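One chain shown below:
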Amino acid sequence: MTQAPEDHVQGVEVTVVTGLSGAGRSTAAKCLEDLGWFVVDNLPPELISTMVELGAKAQGAVTKVAVVMDVRSRAFTEDLASIIRDLDASGYKPRVLFLEATDEVLIRRFEQVRRGHPLQGDGRLIDGIKAERDLLAPLRSDADLVLDTSTLSVHQLRAKIEDTFGTEASTTTRVTVLSFGYKYGIPMDADLVMDVRFLPNPFWIPELKDLTGRDTDVRNYVLTQEGAEEFLDRYHELLRLIGAGYRREGKRYLTLAIGCTGGKHRSVTISEELSRRLADEDRMAVKVVHRDLGRE
């Protein structure tokens, strides 16, 4: 008995990535993978439907499937077009992303990596490119999105993929604000390290010594010191610029290390306050970790 499309689709999103060799399929695949897609490269066309069905039966574990296809499968265009029609009829409504570039750009890219074209055979590189372009013409005409990567950098291509296939969550920079004590060593995984030992140390205030940067009295003491608010304002503004730049470069994780002598007072207070400010930024998911709190 044939199932109705709505009975077996189960929310699985399907994208087929194809296009000219050298036009950026690998970059697109890596970007989709970073966005949370389950990516399969060069799957035989006749197995695509099986792959999608398995994803639909995964009880929500797989909700986005991207299949990267190229001319290494000799029955490529006819089989793939048929599979796409079958998936569409089954209710999956696959999207087709087609990547292309000019002959001049493709030739330059192949020459840079010193590789031949898969359809070149005994002919010239340009012959292989032309043969592939002719072979893929029907798929290009039916594609949902055609991207010409001739003038795009890797980062620009990633940005276009993210704009089309990403969600707000998948394009969010995940920021960890990590307090630490210099006497225990600088965190090895920190992207940025900031030293807040320029602020007076609450350790030398008897009534604050045994408290931590999470306590109100210590917090008030640290944040009312000369330069504390100005530092937070300026560093926050700098992190806005850095966060935006990281997103453009495809970097999704950022660890900010804030250090003082023991990692108990100043770095803890500043990390908590900086985390609070960053949490209000768009496309930033922030958590705070106090590495050395409790070691003293």
